[in-house]
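Sequence in, structure out. Go.
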Amino acid sequence: MSFDPNLEKILIIDFGSQFTQLIARRTREFGIYCEIITHFKLKNFDFNEKIKGIILSGGPLNVYEVNKYSFDKKIFKYNIPILGICFGHQILSKLNGGKVKQSKHREFGLVNIFQKNKSILTKNFFNKKNLTEVWMSHADQVTKLPKNFKVIASSQNSKFAIIQHKRQNLFGVQFHPEVTHTKNGKKIINNFIFLICKMKKNWFVKDQKLKLIQEIQDRVGSNKVICALSGGVDSSVVAQLLYKAVGKNLYCIFVNTGLLRKNEEVQVIKTFKKKLKINLIYVNAEKEFINKLKNITDPEKKRKIIGNLFIKIFENYAKKIKNVKFLAQGTLYPDLIESKSVTGSQTSKIKSHHNVGGLPKKMKLSLIEPLKFLFKDEVRNLGLELKLSREIISRHPFPGPGLAIRIPGPITKEKVKILKEADYYFIESLRDHGLYDKIWQAYAALLPVKTVGVMGDNRTYEYLCLLRAITSEDGMTADFYDFSKSFMQEISNKIVNSIRGINRVVYDITSKPPSTIELE
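Output:
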């Protein structure tokens, strides 16, 4: 991520953690510009006066496997404040003379830590009993304190949970302050940025908008751009951003895959073609997608089939428009981080996304993904800055592959029809009860399981419908929404009584981690 070399910044050194971009997101929340760089590229990096602080990320690495990471000790000589998180804490300790070993007792999940000494880093972090709850995720730990460091806090199994150099601005925390599970975790990052690095706010939504528009104009020139429009928040913001940048040279292609939510195609045409007056090409490819997915059960194959067919359709329509050289997509950072590491570090791949892993190796169009370093809340704020309606901006996330990944097992036209109705009833009930905006994402899924039921005097043997609703700030971690019993009874009855094909409803109460938000 690189926006402006002239701004003062926090530099985040990425060691492959899936939470690295969360650190950047927290930093930006405070109105501070930051950049991420992989540890592989540190050797020739220019540590200039614009870098006011350095954060070392976590990661899947071990500090005693020196061939797997790159880090130059000269960073400590620049007199720049450094905060090490998890693996960053361990490497900070090791390279300053401490020792790191495999833990006898691993710590994963919520852990209580207690304050042993006061620190500027932990101002207003602990409660009145000098305790707080943090999110740990480590199998190694610091076993010997580095020279000239002192202990700030400990847990039952981590004696050196927070450490600090006695004279220099060097700090290490074994836990992850960037995740929502760490109570008051933002205080750690806030204190580091403002009290230790002494930075002033310099990063605003308006600046992002102007910078992104300029970058698009510089890259596209007078060529035409096709935007993959779905009607969701991400692609809607991309479309409006591109329209501000290239005007009538933007052509939005909206493909009805048959895997959209109920009546979605009508809403998209109404919003973008009639209201926003953007060039919109509507393609009804429902039969093509359903036929291509026939008898396909593997979720990765589903994603790739959908991705390839998407691109094929775009390329076919691109031929009908002169000077089209670019394809725009609403890819966000969580899409990328779960598919591959953006910075080149050893981030574990969880799954491919249709607008990432599903792309063909040989594309005939150059790809534009202007939102790929932003999180959902940042995209929503950008959308408001671009004057999009709150109705569009507040929509729940919807996956690129659509309902295909909410129907585990074979996909049929009948299953899709059943699921559309179930999803519609669920979402409308959330709106009716004033719950929609309290939930990050909600959906219905049709499981490949049939169960016996009784309706009147008749025996039924129909599908099982799963409902999922989660709360989250960014989609990287999530908890299930705790509905009232009366609401669950109401929506269950409505779905079972209104939809032929479903006779049982269950609710998913799994958090992320360990699960993902979507089923496939």
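Check: The domain at 9-196 is CATH 3.40.50.880 (Rossmann fold). The longest strand covers residues 99-115.
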